[in-house]
Amino acid sequence: MRRPVHVQDQLYHEVLSDDCSDNPFHFNFDDDHLRQPIIPLSKEAKLARRRAQIAKSAQKHRLRIREEIEALQTQQVQLEAALARATLWWKEAATRERDARAASETINKHLRQMVRQTKSCAKHWRDYKQEMQQSPTIIYYPPTTNSN
């Protein structure tokens, strides 16, 4: 289990070492490098390594939480801006509708008044016509068409 880590460390040190070869990717895979004895870790070293792993995972967790909070704050700003735009649009639409309704009610009021006046005028002329037909002193001549 430790062998791949050991090989990886060996490769890393070979890359960073001041080798006389010009190629930085020249690795020495001789068997003598792979057969170095594995030194067992002491209890303190294992404990220190575990503490380092815990600290690293806790740091990663805090970083993930921080990034998520930042993303959520950015999303909150965007959503609040969208809400403000939508609210403004709906308020303007409500104002337009209110103005249009007031205008239509005014027009409707004028039209009703004109209908009442027209009905009153028509009633007046009907009454006048009826009076003319029933009056003995006034002779009513219905309109005729000229056929000349």
From TrEMBL:
The lineage of its organism: Eukaryota, Sar, Stramenopiles, Oomycota, Saprolegniomycetes. It comes from the Eukaryota. Residues 55-82 form a coiled coil. This is BZIP domain-containing protein. Keywords: Coiled coil.
